[in-house]
Write a structure and sequence with these properties.
Layout lengths: L3 E4 L10 H15 L7 E6 L9 E6 L2 E7 H4 E2 L2 E5 L1 H20 L13 H18 L6 H12 L3 H12 L5 H14 L18
Parallel strand pairs: 1-2, 2-4
Antiparallel strand pairs: 3-4, 5-6
Helix pairs in contact: 1-3, 3-4, 4-5, 4-6, 4-7
């Protein structure tokens, strides 16, 4: 069982069932092989609903610190209610990126808040490919491909790197940096920026 601290518990602004969120975290942790001896904090900012979607997966003092907006887990058709298929995929992705930081060659990666948009987009594709290989997750590949192209460039090179990232079973932060450098060198645009939705500075 995952050693999970859930914030908040219970939820008060959304109709999420805290007990079910805990069960989903356990299911996802098992599916992605997250180490059972690592403490996990999942902080869901329920004051940030759809369309505000953002996640962060960091490792602080050996503990996985996960943060997401409430909109990440929300059913797009029913305000304030959780979509289990969406929540499972998002929770698994957060756990897998934290696992990357712990033992998957990403220990040197900057904190999520400091990642470039190209690097984050590439890491997300790498995560999605592995989740798809595990199976059982509701992947939304067309949306991921568009997001990747938005930050990596609408080019044959970007599409080739997308396919490679999605199909590789293992890579390191240094290898992802090389991908980002190739994409940046081939993209004539100024690096695109998206509005940052991150962990509020006064939250622990």
């Amino acid at each position: 069982m995952t050693r999970l601290t859930l914030v908040p518990e219970p939820f008060t602004l959304v109709k999420f069932d805290a007990a079910r969120v805990r069960e989903l975290v356990d299911e996802c942790a098992t599916a992605v092989g997250f180490p059972q001896d690592v403490d996990v904090t999942l902080d869901v900012d329920e004051a940030l609903p759809l369309p505000l979607t953002s996640t962060q997966s960091d490792v602080i003092d050996g503990r996985a610190a996960l943060w997401c907006t409430g909109g990440v887990l929300e059913d797009p058709h029913f305000q304030g209610q959780m979509s289990e298929p969406i929540a499972r995929a998002e929770l698994a992705a957060m756990l897998l990126r934290a696992k990357d930081r712990l033992s998957g060659g990403f220990a040197e990666a900057p904190a999520d808040a400091d990642l470039s948009d190209r690097a984050r987009a590439g890491w997300d594709v790498y995560v999605d490919g592995r989740l798809d290989a595990i199976g059982g997750f509701a992947m939304r590949e067309p949306r991921r491909l568009y997001t990747f192209r938005l930050y990596a460039g609408f080019s044959d090179l970007a599409d080739a790197e997308y396919a490679r990232l999605r199909s590789t079973p293992s890579m390191s932060w240094a290898q992802l940096e090389e991908v980002v450098e190739r994409l940046a060198a081939a993209d004539p645009r100024e690096e695109p920026k998206r509005p940052k939705v991150g962990r509020p500075t006064l939250r622990i």
